[in-house]
Amino acid sequence: MTKEYWNERYAKGQTGWDLGTASPPLEEYIKQLDNKDLKILLPGCGNGYEALLMAELGFKNLTILDIAPLAVEQLQNRLRNYPTVRILCEDFFTHQDQYDLILEQTFFCALPPSMREQYVQKMSELLKPEGKLVGVLFASEFDKAGPPFGGTTEEYLQLFSPYFIDAILEPCHNSIRPRQGNELFVKWVKKDL
After folding, report:
1. Which of 11, 33, 103, 192 has the fewest Cβ atoms within 10 angstroms?
2. Which among 164, 39, 32 is positioned nearest to 100, based on CA atoms?
């Protein structure tokens, strides 16, 4: 799952996870956020529909990153009218900063399960005290090899609980039709370790 792998997926249009718009559960969450000054990260953001929505809504402190140069180039074009959005082409696992909120949308499921513990540790590291990790995770295992890689509620609780308090972990009520019944909305609050 290298930079070259993901770049090739974008070059060939092999982006079956791409909804062509912001994920409805995340869109609903984003629209209820009042504080437009929150420092927010969207890692592995791909085509960045949630980032575009947030820029349009006036969020002022938004960082988006992806490892694939082609995805980043497309994001730069799509968000060229929003110069305050920081767009980075880099590896999430080497990124350094601190955020109030990190939004998760199809990044976790793109990583091999062997990297999940590293993902959780890095998320905790990137969040300020009491920072939040909010997003959508798949609520089932998949028959075919990924990505995407699925998971279960029990697995997620075991994985995230050393670093986060699960404020919300529930089935999404507004998933797109093909994903109905297969998505969990999660809101994790960083523990004071």
Report:
1. 192
2. 39
89 φ, ψ to 5°?
-105, 95
Long-range contacts of 113-122 (CB under 8 A, 24+ apart): 113/149, 113/151, 116/159, 117/159, 118/93, 120/159, 120/160, 120/162, 120/163, 120/164, 121/163, 122/92, 122/93, 122/95
Closest CA to 44 of 63, 67, 20: 67
pTM summary value: 0.88
Among candidate residues 102, 105, 98, 149, the one with its CA nearest the CA of residue 125:
98
Q: Among all chains, which residue has been given the structure tokens 């939040």? A: 132
